[in-house]
Design goal:
Keywords: Signal. It is built from 11 helices and no strands. It is mainly alpha-helical. The protein has one domain. Helix 1 runs parallel beside helix 9 and helix 6 runs parallel beside helix 11. It is globular, with a radius of gyration of 18 Å.
Length: 239
């Protein structure tokens, strides 16, 4: 989830640092289909509710994940512009490094991952739903929230998603080492960065509760599966 959190920071800060700038190169090879083709398997619990639990399945998953990361990175280098490009590339490089450590049989994180995966999968269905709901909520904010309020809504929804994930872990995975493995990821570092940026706009706060409830998405308004496309929609909608 480190990749996702880095892009959340990008979506929040990009419009502030690049007002009026274009985010995507005007090129026929840079359409939405190009990034959709990269898939979503490299998003932990974003693609499906289970992680691979043995060497064989992990090796197969690693090939698909690294291929998807390479595809997304090539798209970002070729098509994205300015702060959004830099943030996406940074997020993908960070994700690639973390994935390579997990996939390298000689690295300590490889064994830690395999020992942790069965317990993490006990929370997999709920975490997958947390991520899926956040994707829909962020897209709803991009389309429905007042322009000057979008970042505040996004902060509240991110906080709700983060709490949802942590609750899912503590209630379903009882292995302290598995939970510690998750807590040592850079997700927690980035979470603190998002908290500083969002300030008092946390799920359940008076500030979040004071925001008007947004209308639901229309039947034909489906959130993109790719978080790059999703956050591109969000960033483009912020003045």
């Amino acid at each position: 989830m480190r990749y996702l959190l880095t892009l959340i920071v990008c979506a929040a800060l990009g419009p502030l640092l690049s007002a009026g700038a274009k985010y995507v190169r005007d090129n026929p090879d840079c359409g939405d289909d190009a990034i959709d083709a990269c898939g979503t398997e490299f998003i932990c619990f974003g693609h499906e509710p289970r992680l691979p639990e043995n060497e064989t399945h992990l090796a197969e998953s690693c090939k698909r994940q690294l291929k998807g990361i390479d595809c997304a990175n090539e798209y970002s280098e070729r098509c994205l512009l300015g702060f959004f490009r830099g943030s996406a590339v940074t997020a993908l490089i960070t994700l690639q490094e973390e994935t390579e450590r997990k996939c390298d049989a000689t690295h300590p994180d490889h064994k830690r991952y395999l020992k942790s995966a069965p317990c993490l999968n006990k929370a997999g269905d709920r975490i997958h739903k947390c991520v899926h709901n956040f994707r829909d909520d962020l897209y709803r904010i991009a389309l429905k929230a007042p322009p000057k309020q979008k970042i505040r809504y996004a902060c509240c929804e991110y906080s709700k998603m983060y709490s949802c994930k942590q609750t899912s872990l503590t209630e379903n995975c009882k292995d302290p080492k598995a939970i510690q493995y998750v807590r040592e990821s850079a997700e927690y570092v980035l979470h603190n960065l998002v908290k500083v940026f969002c300030g008092r706009y946390e799920s359940g706060s008076e500030e979040c509760n004071a925001l008007d409830k947004l209308p639901a998405l229309d039947a034909n308004e489906n959130a993109p599966k790719s978080f790059i496309l999703l956050l591109k929609s969000f960033a483009a909608a912020v003045p």
